[in-house]
Structures are given as C-alpha cells and as structure tokens.
Amino acid sequence: MKLGLFGYGTIGRGVYTLVDNIKEKYNLEMKKVFDLPQKKDQLGEKLVTDVNDIIFDDEIDAVIEVLGGHDLPYQVITSCLKKGKSVITANKEVVSMHLEEFINLAHENNCSFCFEASCGGGIPVIRPLIDNIKVNDVNDIFGILNGTTNYILTKMDDEGLTFDEALSLAKKNGFAEANPTADLEGLDLVRKINILSSLAYKGNISNDDIYHYGISGVTREILADIRKRGYILKLVASSHKEGNNVSIRVEPTMVPIGHPLSAVKNEFNAVLFTGSTNGTLEFYGKGAGSIPTATAIVSDLVSIIENRSYIDYKNENKLIVNENKVNKGTYFVVDRTDKISIEANLTDEQLQAAKFYARLLSL
Ligand code: HSE
Predict the structure, then answer these.
(1) Do residues 99 and 158 both lie within one domain?
(2) pLDDT digits (tens, 9 = 90+) for 64-86
(3) How many Å apart are CA 56 and CA 87, to the nearest integer?
(4) Last residue within a domain, chosen from 114, 141, 172
(5) What is the DSSP letter of 233?
(6) What is the C-alpha separation between 257 and 260, in angstroms, rounded?
(7) Residue 303 lies in a domain
(8) Kind and range of the H or E element at 300?
(9) Fewer beta carbons within 10 Å, N or C terminal of the chain?
(10) pLDDT tens digits, one per residue of 184-242
(11) Residues of the chain where predicted confidence (pLDDT) is lower than 70
C-alpha cells in the first residue's frame, strides 16, 4: 500500500518512523510527504509542497493528516475521501466539527476514516467506545484528556516548577499544540470530549456549546492549598447524558487523593466511561507526545490494512447541550483579591468572574 503524509512536524516524524518499522511486514511505502520547502533536507525527493500532489496521485491508497489547524486539513480530508483514499487523522479540531460529514464521505466512497489519535493520544479509546455502545448505553464520560496541562500541574505541584517553566518543558517534549492557548484554556479538551460524547450519545454537538475554563490562573500557592485540603488539582472534561439533555464541561477539578484520577501524572491521560451493562471502564496511558500518538495513528493504518476499520456514526439524537445555568456542586473560589472561599451552586458567569476556581469532586 502506498501512503501520503500531510505534515512532518512532531507527530508526522513519529508516524514516518513507525511506518518505516513495519513497512516490510505490511508492504507499505511512504510515497510522498507534504510540508514546507524547508523540510527538503530531511525528506529529499519524498517532499511535496502542493497538497494536490498527494490528493491526485492515484497510486496513493491512504493518507495520514497531522497538519493541525482547520482549513487546510478540512480541504485535504474531504478531497482525499472523495477520491476514495482512506484517511487517518489526529486532528481533534476538524474531527470535532465535521465527524458526521467525514464518516459519510468515507462510506459513500468505500474507504475508511479513522481518528483514534484525536482523543487520548496513544490510548486506544475511540475503538473500545464504538464497540461498547453497540451493546451498551454509555451516558457518562469523565477524564483527563490533555497531556500538556496535566504535565504542567504535575511539575508545579510535585517539583515546584513555575507555570512558565513547566509550560516550556511541555513544549520542548512535544506535548503542547503549536499555539498552547488551546491546551491551557481547555479548548483542546472541549474538542476531545465532544468527539467522545458525539459518538457515545449518537448526536452532533457544537464545540461552542461546551463550557470550558482553563488553568492559566493557577499558582503553586493554590496547588499547595488544594493539596492541604486532601485534593490534587486536575483539568477534567466531563460529560453526562440524561434523556436528550447533555451536560458537558471542562474545568479545573479538585480530585480527592485516592481517586484513580489523582494518580494520573505528567503527560498521561485517563478516561472513564460508565456503561449501562458493564459499569465503569477506565483507560489510561500516554495522552501526548510524538511516538505514543503516532502509535495510535499507525494502529489505525493496520486496522485499515486488516479490513477492520469500519466506523458507524449516526447523528440520530437531537441533543440539548448545557441548558442548566446553575451548577449544582461545591467550588473552591479564589476571588480578585486572592481571598479563598468554598461556595455552592454558582452560575457559569460567577465562575468565570473568579481569578481561579476549581470544582470539588467527591470520592
Ligand atoms: N496538545 C495535546 C495534549 C496533544 O497536550 O494533550 C495531544 O492531543
């Protein structure tokens, strides 16, 4: 099988290496790689600087899109699927916005659309969820779904690094997005919890309807205070469905020491699904980084080769997202004068007005 790769950055290089490792076993050839002309030194004759050189190459059967961003990836994915090329992507932004369209295009053109690496980096989470919901109703999804912010919180709390020191290490290790604001403000988690929830609840969800609050305001003093109270701070994405009403939130959360999520450190992620017939399942592993993410991508590729990549997605439920305006629960609130208080039943507006806040989770 001949392949095309769109993007030779952190993840693209990992994909290139892993494809090279298995090329004999699966008879693979990475025929062309799209990136900027500056990558010529690394890629030689394989480099193309026009996406059409891959899209219109009839010898290429499958492509991997790891460009990041929206417009070019959207164009590349839709064009390749229309040409009957299978597409594998790690791009949570486009998948969260166009899941139904991509799946339909793949079905119409007898090819595959796979996106395991879009949620949880190297953790196989999409496929188990898809298999599970065939026999089970999953109405609760909960977890740490961003490696960068979990890495920052761990390094600040366990090793006393400043926020900026921890962020620059996360960038150096290849965990952060090109623009890390999406990580820090929770937008990356919005996209991931959207993908998982849309699949589980069988309905389209707009990223704009998902509440999110990030960790930019966190300090080492806040983390120490939270720890003294018996909690560890985590940026958590949660989603719950009752009837067609869905509540989806991304917010700093105080996890009691002893809860499974409290032990998830550095770039590791963990996600928990609760099913109607099998209770809670927990998935844990490396949520970011070149080789773990590339492993999920290349596993998708092998699933295509072995003819087990079919994904069904039906937008059959009209979901009503985040209708409740008052949040039941208890909150740790740091106000603009640095006064800390514990409060209950706050609106999103009250929460957003805080200098920093975290929701308390009970065991
Ligand atoms: N920036 C993302 C993260 C990469 O830190 O989790 C993996 O999706």
Answers:
(1) no
(2) 999 999 999 999 999 999 999 99
(3) 14
(4) 114
(5) E
(6) 8
(7) no
(8) helix 290-305
(9) C
(10) 999 999 999 999 999 999 999 999 999 999 999 999 999 999 999 999 999 999 999 99
(11) 363
Instruction: Please report, as a single letter, which amino acid is at residue 128.
Output: P
Q: In terms of residue numbers, what domain contains 101?
A: 2-114
Expressed in angstroms and rounded, the spacing between residue 56 Cα and the centre of ligand 1 is: 31
CA-CA-CA-CA torsion sign (144, 345, 223, 230) = negative
Do 185 and 101 fall into the same domain?
no
How far is Cα 345 from Cα 352, in angstroms, rounded to an integer?
14
162: in domain: yes
Tell me the CA–centroid distance for residue 289 and ligand 1, in Å. Answer: 8
Pocket test for ligand 1, best of 89, 155, 188 (most atoms within 8 A of CB): 188
Structure token pair of residue 352: 């957003």
Instruction: Return the structure tokens found at 358.
Output: 């975290």
> Does residue 325 sit in the same domain as residue 195?
yes
Q: Catalytic site residue 286?
A: no
Pocket test for ligand 1, best of 183, 184, 193, 267 (most atoms within 8 A of CB): 183
For residue 51, how far is its CA from the centre of ligand 1 (angstroms)? 25
- Looking at the structure of the chain, the number of domains it has is 2
